[in-house]
Specification:
Number of helices: 17
Order of helices and strands: HHHEEHHHHHHHHEEEHHHHHH
CATH topology of the largest domain: hpI Integrase, Chain A
Strand order of the largest sheet: 3-4-5
CATH class of the largest domain: Mainly Alpha
Number of domains: 3
Shape: globular
Radius of gyration: 29 Å
Helix content: 55-70%
CATH architecture of the largest domain: Orthogonal Bundle
Distance between the termini: 92 Å
Length: about 400
C-alpha cells in the first residue's frame, strides 16, 4: 500500500484513484463507463472506486495508512485512530465518506466538537453566513418538500433561534449597496429599467416569443418590487384575482394584497399600484403571459416552465442578472427592501414607523435595528447641505 500511495496528505478519493491502477491492471472498464467516456463524460468506475476505498480502510486498521481530518475555523489537522473512525456512521462507506449523520449521542461527536467546534476566543455567536444559511435551508425544504411538515417546522424554529443572534444594523455589504442606491441617478436607472425591458420584449415577440415573454415577466417583477418591496416567497406566489386585484372593477388600478397568513411574520400587506404599473402588468398579462402558460389554465402571475409558479431560486437569479445587465447595480430581490427603507428615510429622516408599514415589519424596533448606521449617511448629507447654503450666501455677498 505504501508503495502505491504517495507520502503526504491526499483525500480518500484521491487515494482510491491512485490505488485503482495497481488493483485492476489489465481489467477492462465496465461497458457503461466506456460509452460515457466516449461521449465526453468525465466518469469513474464506481465499483472499482468502492473496492479501492475498502482496501484503504483495511490498511488503516492494520496501521499502514493513517487517517487525518482537517477542519475548524482555524484550520487544524488531527489524526483519527481506527477505533474512532468505526464509531462514525457512514465515514467508512464508499458513498458516505463524511460526518453527516454524526449525532451528539455518539461519543465521537464530542471528540470532534472539541477539536473543531466554535473558536472560544471569538465566542459562540453564529456568523451572518450561518444565520442566512438557515433561511436557505428552510426555503429549500419548503420548495422541494424533501422533509415532512413536522421536521420543516423544527427547521424553521432553528432558523428563528438563529435570527435572534443576528446583530442589528447594516452589514458592510448592505452599507456598500445603499451608498450606491443613494447616489443620484442610480435608483432612477433601476426604476426606468422595466419600461425599457418591456419595449425590448415587444420587439422580440415576433421572432422569439418565449424569450420576449420571459423578458416581459422579469420587467413586471422588477417594476412591482420598486413600489411594493415584498419578499421573494410572496412575489413568486402572486395570484391574479387573489393577490393582484382591481377593487373598483376592470377599469380601476391594480392593488397588490397579501393576507397575514401568507406573510412571513403574519402582517397583512396592501400596496395600491399606480396607473403606469397597472398598464405594464396588463400588457404582460394579455400579450406575453399566455406564452408562458403553454396552454395551462392557472392564475399565477409568474407561471413556471411546468405546472405551478416560477421557482424562487431561478426567478431571483434572473431578476438580479437583468438588473445588473441593465443598470450596473448588483442587487438581490431582498435588497429591494433595503433600498426602499433607505430611500424613504432619506426623504423622511427618522420616520421608522413609515418604513415599518411599507416593509410589513411586526414591530418598529425591527426596522430601527435594520437601519442602524444609516443615520451617519443622513447626518452627513444634511450637514453638507448646510455647508453649501453658507457657500452660496458667501457667493451672493461677493456679487
Amino acid at each position: 500500500m505504501t508503495d502505491v500511495l504517495s507520502i503526504g496528505y491526499v483525500t480518500l478519493l484521491q487515494a482510491a484513484e491512485m490505488l485503482q491502477p495497481s488493483m485492476f491492471a489489465g481489467v477492462p472498464d465496465q461497458a457503461a463507463v466506456i460509452r460515457l467516456r466516449q461521449m465526453g463524460a468525465n466518469v469513474s468506475d464506481g465499483p472499482a472506486t468502492d473496492r479501492a476505498i475498502a482496501e484503504i480502510w483495511k490498511a488503516v486498521d492494520s496501521g499502514t495508512v493513517r487517517p487525518m481530518v482537517v477542519g475548524g475555523q482555524r484550520r487544524r489537522i488531527v489524526r483519527l485512530d481506527p477505533a474512532t473512525t468505526k464509531q462514525i456512521p457512514t465515514l467508512r462507506s464508499p458513498r458516505g465518506r463524511g460526518f453527516t449523520f454524526l449525532r451528539p449521542s455518539n461519543p465521537a461527536f464530542h471528540k470532534l466538537a472539541g477539536w473543531f467546534g466554535p473558536d472560544r476566543q471569538n465566542g459562540d455567536t453564529p456568523k451572518v453566513f450561518t444565520i442566512n444559511l438557515a433561511s436557505r435551508f428552510v426555503a429549500i425544504a419548503k420548495e422541494t418538500k424533501c422533509v415532512d411538515d413536522a421536521h420543516c417546522e423544527r427547521l424553521d424554529q432553528m432558523r428563528r433561534d438563529l435570527e435572534d443572534e443576528r446583530r442589528g444594523g447594516l452589514t458592510d455589504k448592505n452599507t456598500a449597496f445603499l451608498r450606491q442606491v443613494l447616489t443620484p441617478g442610480v435608483w432612477h436607472r433601476v426604476v426606468q429599467l422595466p419600461m425599457k425591458m418591456m419595449e425590448t420584449a415587444r420587439l422580440q415577440q415576433s421572432y422569439a416569443p418565449v424569450k420576449a415573454a420571459v423578458t416581459a415577466q422579469l420587467a413586471v417583477a422588477i417594476a412591482i418590487l420598486t413600489v411594493a418591496p415584498v419578499r421573494l416567497a410572496n412575489l413568486t406566489a402572486i395570484l391574479l384575482g387573489a393577490n393582484l386585484i382591481k377593487p373598483d372593477g376592470p377599469d380601476s388600478n391594480y392593488w397588490l394584497v397579501f393576507p397575514d397568513y401568507d406573510v412571513k411574520n403574519r402582517v397583512r400587506l396592501e400596496y395600491p399600484l399606480e396607473p403606469y404599473l397597472t398598464r405594464l402588468i396588463e400588457k404582460y398579462v394579455h400579450d406575453f403571459r399566455p406564452t408562458l402558460l403553454r396552454g395551462r389554465n392557472e392564475d399565477w402571475l409568474f407561471p413556471g416552465q411546468h405546472r405551478g409558479a416560477k421557482g424562487k431560486t431561478s426567478f431571483s437569479g434572473q431578476i438580479s442578472d437583468r438588473i445588473y445587465e441593465g443598470t450596473g447595480v448588483r442587487m438581490t430581490v431582498h435588497q429591494f427592501r433595503r433600498a426602499a427603507g433607505a430611500l424613504l428615510l432619506s426623504r423622511r429622516p427618522g420616520e421608522y414607523e413609515l418604513v415599518r408599514q411599507l416593509l410589513g415589519h411586526r414591530n418598529v424596533q425591527t426596522t430601527v435595528n435594520a437601519y442602524i448606521g444609516l443615520e451617519n449617511i443622513q447626518a452627513s448629507e444634511i450637514f453638507s447641505k448646510i455647508v453649501v447654503e453658507h457657500m452660496e450666501d458667501e457667493l451672493e455677498a461677493a456679487e
